[in-house]
Amino acid sequence: MRKRFEQQFSLGQLAIKDIEFTTRTRDRLSSMYRALKEIFVNPEYNEKVFAILEEEITKKKKRTGRTGMDLWMIFVLAQTRMCLAIDYDELQHQANYNKLLRQLLGVEIPFEVGVQFKYQTLVDNVELLTDETLRRINDVILMFGEKVFKKKRNGTLALV
């Protein structure tokens, strides 16, 4: 049975709500990670996103058996892949060596190797999210964005 997110912290592990991001950057990945953190922390939108993920990923599967990758991990990795328009080889590199991404996934543990993602595991899990599912989630994110983001003078959105 898949979990939404592993709640058990290891010694020295940083909670997702405590992750700090650089605010002075034009990097699209940092902006997306900040938005994902806000979705994770906001109970209303967190519930909506996880409900869609559970419906799509676990709909035809038994509630017993081996645990799979957490729903949050699948969601973050799929969003990272779409944001950067990268293949699974690059996604594997990002998932294993990008400290900020690993903190957002909840697997970055100081002074330990921690979780290492295998190529086929990434492919098998990230592909579970169909384009239709991602569109439904993006609709929720857009609703969330209207409340959390403010519009700048040039017409772009930024976190409040």
- Portion of residues in beta strands equals under 5%
Biggest sheet descriptor? 2 strands, antiparallel
Rounded Rg:
16 Å
Unreliable stretches covering 5 or more consecutive residues: none
Order of helices and strands: HHHHHHHEE
Helix-strand category: mainly alpha
Q: Compute the number of strand runs.
A: 2
Question: How would you describe this protein?
Answer:
- This protein is mainly alpha-helical.
- It has one domain (26-159).
- 54% of the residues lie in helices and 4% in strands.
- It has helices at residues 28-41, 43-57, 71-84, 88-97, 99-105, 119-126, 131-148; strands at 149-151, 157-159.
- Strands 1-2 form a two-stranded antiparallel sheet.
- A hairpin with a 5-residue loop joins strand 1 and strand 2 (157-159).
- Helix 1 (28-41) packs antiparallel against helix 3 and helix 2 runs antiparallel to helix 7.
- It is globular.
- The N and C termini lie far apart (36 Å).
- The mean pLDDT is 79.
Please supply descriptive tags for the structure shown above.
160 residues; mainly alpha; two-stranded antiparallel ribbon; globular; 54% helix
Please provide a brief summary of the model.
This protein is mainly α.
List the topology elements.
Layout: H1 28-41, H2 43-57, H3 71-84, H4 88-97, H5 99-105, H6 119-126, H7 131-148, E1 149-151, E2 157-159
Antiparallel strand pairs: 1-2
Helix pairs in contact: 1-3, 2-7
